């Protein structure tokens, strides 16, 4: 096998886990990113802190595309940084949809529902 072929296949196999993660349905790492990185300003339960609350009731007036734009570009003049250098458009879109739906709120931080 030639040197070029070795390098090619090494590159393919080196990138394979990244591609599989990006295409897969296991978003555990992305959920952890939201809780840790976003939670450091927006509160670990996303109820607010330095930044505003990121719960469905607080986000209902914003379309998911607007939330995605804020995540991607940040908010100039505030502590909200742009995340476009670290997250793909797919990941940003997924986060914005999850925030809108409340899916990233941990069970212990959800409001009690009377039954």
Automatic annotation (TrEMBL):
Residue intervals of the Cytochrome c domain: 25-103
GO MF term set: electron transfer activity; heme binding; metal ion binding
Entry-linked Gene3D superfamilies: Cytochrome c-like domain
Keywords: Heme, Iron, Metal-binding
Keyword tRNA-binding recorded: no
Superkingdom, taxonomy of origin: Bacteria
Record Pfam families: Cytochrome_CBB3 (PF13442)
Protein name: Cytochrome C
Naturally occurring in which organism (per UniProt): Marinobacter halophilus
Lineage: Bacteria, Pseudomonadati, Pseudomonadota, Gammaproteobacteria, Pseudomonadales
């Amino acid at each position: 096998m030639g040197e070029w072929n070795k390098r090619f296949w090494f590159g393919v196999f080196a990138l394979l886990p990244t591609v599989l993660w990006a295409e897969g349905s296991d978003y555990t790492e992305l959920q952890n990113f939201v809780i840790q990185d976003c939670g450091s300003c927006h509160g670990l339960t996303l109820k607010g802190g330095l930044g505003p609350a990121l719960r469905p009731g607080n986000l209902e007036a914003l379309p998911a595309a607007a939330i995605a734009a804020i995540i991607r570009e940040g908010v100039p003049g505030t502590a909200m940084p742009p995340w476009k250098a670290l997250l793909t458009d797919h990941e940003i879109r997924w986060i914005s949809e999850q925030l809108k739906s409340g899916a990233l709120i941990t069970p212990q931080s959800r409001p009690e529902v009377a039954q």
